[in-house]
């Protein structure tokens, strides 16, 4: 049977066909849909972990218990999961373990474009790189055999174009006859104290050397001879671009990008006149080939920054591109917080108070954009609180009152909680705002430990934020309704003045939550055109439901789109002329 | 089958239903026996930003994205986004666009105005433009929400694939209770 699958759907299907028992992940574009699709295969226990490190640790446990395990994350998630990964490389596995990592060249939805292949080399684990959905499924399936045969975790690297691209996939039946999981003790292999680890490290080196030697025989790498004047070594989606742009060239398509198959590379290099590497981001393959003493052209002609496209490759090889029509000068269309978003009022208040906002990652990062323009830093998930602590340590007393960390519920539980522990422990007088919208919104509304449900849609224990903060030792904890501008501003101001750590928790759900009883749309609002003076105060919150209508010769007026308004009431509070009210 | 690849671009604003439309296109091409690839960016773009989806079909398709300036058909869900995507289209490419304006934030806030005369600007470079009043025709089909399907019908007329494949794809991907109104909307678009 054939289906059109995205790379992520195909990876989920591959896990099903491979007999995976446990899947754990933390959401992150472009990897999120892997777990969202895996839940259709009921034999797999799939869950959201609070962060990537925990997700990998759950996977490791499942593997040690004898079950096959899949763990998924976006590229920056591997930074968080790196600690267990590096030692897992030493222990190896019991049931096969696959770590899927989705890179984001071009940073379509990320804060950096780090190249995960470096992690495979650094942690000394094999890495597969599929070039379309068919390979996503096949490689996922094969990865578990590879993992068990070589006693190693395996990484599978995807990129945005692979994860979110769709192509045709042939479905197969799941494997049968896998051994039943049970407790097996093997301390010498699984307890990584120095004495045991010293024994394991040489085995890791042997394993990687063997994988490199076996590279020609393994079903991942493919040598395709066409015109031998030009040979291109490539992998992933770049293989597709090369076939499109340089259809006559010979290719060595690498499906395993670490370790590299040295013999196959030598054989290919000997057969072609000029050798090129076409790879996205770092010169990862290129540098290793150069270290083998083989002349090759790569980043001299191709960019390191951003993703490759057929057009960019054409340009690099000096080939003519199609003629394109002139680019029109048009207003831009950046993303925006939704109408009724509970984050909006908080950023409006922070802007008015001229706060120095250490930011974090989530929908609320859009508070950086005008007209709210209330974010001064944003590094990585969980960074806001530590950043605020650091800032207040160095600035003077008056400036320290301006410092506010803002962090979403999911991000706080991911890695923010440690920052708060530090802020309290070391008594840093900054204010933290936990934006609790009861969901991980940015990545498409995933449940989390504070949302009350699991990935499998079962009711779950909900974290009580005020109680948690109290347990961490926070003395000043306030809960506010972020749709009440006056209250939000007043509480923020009071806590910013306070020379002690304090936490403000906002308590309104994301407007996109579909589950019954969480978010309910209120009666919509309208502008009374007679009372509207055209002062534009309501435009300062940047709500997509409010439109400025220039008057023909007269003064312009605001208009509220009844189809978009959620009845949040925030704009009404801004109108000094009582021109905004509920529609009758 | 020739080696010819057909390149289709779908553009509009996040939340307009572009992904479903591009799924229906891809499914149709697969059912008709072609190789198909499709690519788009989810994520940030869902929060009201610009969205571009690429669909390609032929005997064998490599790249999932349409090379710059090689689009055969531009399927625009919103006028300004249609205009923004013109450089992706080849000379003489076809455009089917919804006659709909969605103001971006700068226009909502009164800092910029929504540009005038976009349809004429498109037509001056790409004379093969079909401007569709999707909202109006959707009402005629019986539901204001099926404007995309009307447009899809209009696009289908410009692609050489038998009607039965289109209808089967609709049947597979549209929820059962909305199928009849979508079928009606599709045929309205196809008859334009
Ligand atoms: C280490 C890491 N993992 C995952 C992501 C992807 N990501 C960005 S924001 C976000 C979640 C934000 O949720 P929350 O903090 O609740 O804020 P909301 O979007 O709901 O406002 C995730 C998972 C990331 N950027 N970094």
- Under CATH, the topology of the largest domain in chain A can be stated as Rossmann fold
Listing every helix as H and every strand as E from the N terminus to the C terminus, the arrangement of chain B reads EHEEEHEHHEHHHH
Whole-number total of structural domains of chain A: 4
Q: Strand order, main sheet of chain A: write it out.
A: 3-2-4-5-7-6-12
Largest sheet of chain A: 7 strands, mixed
- Looking at the overall shape, the CATH architecture of the largest domain in chain A is 3-Layer(aba) Sandwich
Q: What is the strand arrangement across the widest sheet of chain B? A: 2-3-1-4-5-6
Quick one: biggest sheet of chain B?
6 strands, mixed
Q: How far apart lie the N and C ends of chain B?
A: 28 Å
Taking all Cα atoms into account, the compactness measure Rg of chain A is 27 Å
InterPro entries (chain B): IorB_Oxidoreductase, Pyrv/ketoisovalerate_OxRed_cat, Pyrv_flavodox_OxRed_cen
Keywords (chain B): Oxidoreductase
Pfam families (chain B): POR
Organism (chain B): Geomobilimonas luticola
Question: Mind sketching the topology for me?
Answer:
The complex is a heterodimer of chains A (584) and B (192).
Chain A: E1 2-6, H1 7-17, E2 22-25, H2 33-38, E3 45-48, H3 52-64, E4 69-74, H4 77-91, E5 97-103, H5 117-123, E6 127-128, H6 133-149, E7 154-159, H7 160-163, E8 165-170, H8 187-190, H9 194-213, E9 222-224, E10 227-235, H10 236-245, E11 249-254, E12 256-258, H11 262-271, E13 274-278, H12 284-291, H13 310-316, H14 343-352, E14 356-358, H15 383-394, H16 397-400, E15 403-408, H17 409-425, E16 431-436, H18 465-472, E17 476-480, H19 485-497, E18 502-507, E19 525-527, E20 546-549, E21 557-560, H20 570-574, E22 580-582
Helix pairs in contact in A: 1-6, 3-4, 10-13, 14-19, 15-17
Chain B: E1 6-13, H1 18-31, E2 35-40, E3 50-58, E4 71-76, H2 79-84, E5 89-98, H3 105-108, H4 118-125, E6 129-132, H5 134-141, H6 147-156, H7 163-173, H8 179-190
Parallel strand pairs in B: 1-4, 4-5, 5-6
Antiparallel strand pairs in B: 1-3, 2-3
Helix pairs in contact in B: 1-7, 5-6, 5-8, 6-8
Bound molecules: thiamine diphosphate.
Residues 26-28, 52, 74, 76-77, 80, 361-364, 381, 408-411, 435, 437, 439-443 of chain A line the site of thiamine diphosphate.
Protein name (chain B): Indolepyruvate oxidoreductase subunit beta
Pfam families (chain B): POR (PF01558)
InterPro entries (chain B): IorB_Oxidoreductase, Pyrv/ketoisovalerate_OxRed_cat, Pyrv_flavodox_OxRed_cen
């Amino acid at each position: 049977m054939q289906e059109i699958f995205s790379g992520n759907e195909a990876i989920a299907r591959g896990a099903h066909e491979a007999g995976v028992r446990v899947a754990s992940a933390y959401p992150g574009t472009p990897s999120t849909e892997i777990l969202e699709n895996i839940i259709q295969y009921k034999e797999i226990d799939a869950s959201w972990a609070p962060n990537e490190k925990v997700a990998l640790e759950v996977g490791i446990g499942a593997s040690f218990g004898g079950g096959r395990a899949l763990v998924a994350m976006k590229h920056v998630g591997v930074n968080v999961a790196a600690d267990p990964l590096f030692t897992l490389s030493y222990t190896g596995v019991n049931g096969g373990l696959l770590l899927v990592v989705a890179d984001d060249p071009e940073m379509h939805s990320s804060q950096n474009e780090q190249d995960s292949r470096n992690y495979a080399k650094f942690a000394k684990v094999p890495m597969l790189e599929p070039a379309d959905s068919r390979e996503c499924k096949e490689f996922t399936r094969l990865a578990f055999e590879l993992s068990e045969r070589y006693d190693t975790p395996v990484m599978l690297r995807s990129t945005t174009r692979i994860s979110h691209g769709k192509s045709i996939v042939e479905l197969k039946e799941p494997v049968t006859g896998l051994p039943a999981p049970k407790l097996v003790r093997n301390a010498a292999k699984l307890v990584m104290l120095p004495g045991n680890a010293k024994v394991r490290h040489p085995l890791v080196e042997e394993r990687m050397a063997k994988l490199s030697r076996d590279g020609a025989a393994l079903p991942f790498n493919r040598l395709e001879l066409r015109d031998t004047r030009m040979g291109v070594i490539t992998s992933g989606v770049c293989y597709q671009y090369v076939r499109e742009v340089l259809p006559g060239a010979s290719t060595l398509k690498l499906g395993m990008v670490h370790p590299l198959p040295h013999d196959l590379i030598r054989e290919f290099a000997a057969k072609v006149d000029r050798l090129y590497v076409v790879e996205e981001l770092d010169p990862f393959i290129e540098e290793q080939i150069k270290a083998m003493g083989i002349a090759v052209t790569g980043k001299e002609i191709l960019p390191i920054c951003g993703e490759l496209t057929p057009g960019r490759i054409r340009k690099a090889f000096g080939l003519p591109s199609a003629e394109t029509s002139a680019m029109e000068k048009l207003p831009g269309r950046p993303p925006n917080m939704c109408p009724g978003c509970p984050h909006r009022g908080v950023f409006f208040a922070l802007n008015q108070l001229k706060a120095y906002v250490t930011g974090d990652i989530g929908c609320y990062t859009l508070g950086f954009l005008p007209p709210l323009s209330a974010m001064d830093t944003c590094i990585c998930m969980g960074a806001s609180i530590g950043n605020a602590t650091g800032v207040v340590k160095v600035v003077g007393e008056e400036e320290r009152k301006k410092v506010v960390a803002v962090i979403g519920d999911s991000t706080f539980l991911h890695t923010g909680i440690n920052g708060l522990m530090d802020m309290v422990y070391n008594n840093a007088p900054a204010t933290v705002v936990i934006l609790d919208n009861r969901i991980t919104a940015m990545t498409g509304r995933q449940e989390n430990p504070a949302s009350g449900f699991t990935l499998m849609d079962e009711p779950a224990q909900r974290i009580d934020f005020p109680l948690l903060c109290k347990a961490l030792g926070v003395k000043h904890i306030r809960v506010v309704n972020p749709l009440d501008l006056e209250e939000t501003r007043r509480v923020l101001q009071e806590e910013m003045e306070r020379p002690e750590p304090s936490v403000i928790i906002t308590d309104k759900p994301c407007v996109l939550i579909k589950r019954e009883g969480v978010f309910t749309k209120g009666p919509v609002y309208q502008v009374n055109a007679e009372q509207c003076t055209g002062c534009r105060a309501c435009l300062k919150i940047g709500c997509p439901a409010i439109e400025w209508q220039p008057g023909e010769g007269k003064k312009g007026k605001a208009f509220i789109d009844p189809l978009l308004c959620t009845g949040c009431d925030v704009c009404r509070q801004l109108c000094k002329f009582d021109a905004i009210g509920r529609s009758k | 089958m020739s080696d010819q690849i057909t390149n289709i671009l779908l553009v509009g604003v996040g939340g307009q239903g572009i992904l479903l439309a591009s799924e229906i296109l891809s499914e149709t091409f697969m059912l008709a026996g072609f190789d198909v690839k499709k690519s788009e960016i989810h994520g940030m773009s869902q929060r009201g930003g610009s969205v571009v989806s690429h669909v390609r079909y032929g005997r064998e398709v490599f790249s999932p994205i349409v090379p710059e300036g090689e689009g055969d058909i531009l399927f625009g869900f919103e006028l300004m986004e249609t205009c923004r995507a013109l450089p992706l289209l080849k000379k003489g490419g076809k455009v089917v666009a919804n006659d709909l304006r969605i103001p971006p934030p700068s226009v909502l806030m009164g800092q910029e105005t929504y540009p005038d005369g976009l349809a004429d600007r498109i037509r001056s470079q790409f004379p093969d433009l079909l401007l569709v009043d999707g909202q109006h025709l959707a009402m005629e089909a019986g539901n204001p929400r099926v404007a995309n399907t009307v447009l899809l019908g209009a696009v289908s007329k410009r692609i050489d694939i038998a009607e039965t494949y289109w209808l089967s794809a609709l049947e597979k991907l549209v929820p059962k209770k909305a199928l009849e109104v979508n079928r009606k909307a599709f045929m309205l678009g196809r008859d334009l």
